[in-house]
Amino acid sequence: MNNPNKKRVFKKKVQEQIHIPELAEKIISGNRGYLSKGITLIESSAAHHREKANELMQELLTYTGNSIRLGITGVPGAGKSTWIEAFGKTAVSKGYKIAVLAVDPSSTLSGGSILGDKTRMEFLAHHPDVFIRPSPSSGTLGGVARMTRETILLCEAAGYDLILVETVGVGQSEGIVRGMTDFFLLLSLTGAGDELQGMKKGIMELVDAIVINKADGSNKDQAIQTMHDYNQILRFLTPATKDWKPRAYTCSALYNEGIEEIWDVINHFIDETKKNGEFDKRRSRQAVDWMNQLVQIRLNETFFDREKKILMKNLEKQVKQNEISATEAVDLLFKSNV
Ligand SMILES: Nc1nc2c(ncn2[C@@H]2O[C@H](COP(=O)(O)OP(=O)(O)OP(=O)(O)O)[C@@H](O)[C@H]2O)c(=O)[nH]1
Ligand SMILES: [Mg+2]
């Protein structure tokens, strides 16, 4: 007779018995199933899985780094997924193996993932040289950032040499994706006049190129005008990458126009920055920044256990009501051994 409990115990055992060197070997050999397993391990919040995940990252470290990491941002509906489909098609035809990842801030709230959707990426979704992984759907944005960074490394170890990371341009997530990519692209639309006024200067100083999408049909002339407007503004901003002047371009992701031009721009950027050392400098800087952020995360995790969090909430109330000073509250927090 089937005993469901027995089944459950068995499944649990299998999960516990992750043999990291074997998993690493399978990932390096390019096995997609094992790559997915590795990513699932990385996305697990269980403490013993964290240890295993760290072990896996260590095993794979020497196989990582050998890719172009490309970040793409833009408002919802700008055409990011359609653009990735068109750009990815070009990349695949040139022999690249590509991984498409997403950082979706809303997924941490809703538990669902709207990005990295395969419906707009029909061609890529069915191509053997393409690996698509939607945004992790749990945890804080910081947690999602960690998972995505580690997923990039896993994909590189599996032989993917072009990594695309998509994010909605609605705030913090752009900075996070900029911090893990070599080239950062803003996909924009025409009629962005208001946007240009108050803009969003912050985001324009993060980008290496701006692409006005949907430059087709009756929208084409306006797209060209918008491109000129953006170019005017870009001239006065601090570039994100030393010795690189970000420019605006137009394209139609839907009709596959202007994609090759952007391909050339990105390649030119990679060549130039590799030559002048900025490519490696950025990667090193990102690794050190990342280490610092991990220290913060680890400090937070180890310091703030459940009891400390409760104490913190109580102390916050007391500070708010002026019953104790902020300094006194911090003192109590550090002295307490709850
Ligand atoms: N005319 C035209 N329509 C486009 C173009 N690119 C995308 N679209 C359309 O714009 C809509 C949104 O495209 P998506 O690729 O889903 O946009 P997105 O930025 O990924 O959207 P979110 O994932 O929701 O943030 C779809 O209906 C596309 O068909 C283009 O170049 N020209
Ligand atoms: Mg999309």
Automatic annotation (TrEMBL):
EC number: 3.6.5.-
GO molecular function: hydrolase activity
SUPFAM superfamilies in the record: P-loop containing nucleoside triphosphate hydrolases (SSF52540)
Statement: the UniProt record of this protein carries the keyword Acyltransferase: no
InterPro entries: GTPase_ArgK, P-loop_NTPase
A Pfam family of this chain: MeaB
EC top class, as a word: hydrolase
Statement: the UniProt record of this protein carries the keyword Hydrolase: yes
Keyword terms of this UniProt record: Hydrolase
Family the entry assigns: Belongs to the SIMIBI class G3E GTPase family. ArgK/MeaB subfamily.
Name of this protein: Methylmalonyl Co-A mutase-associated GTPase MeaB
Gene: meaB
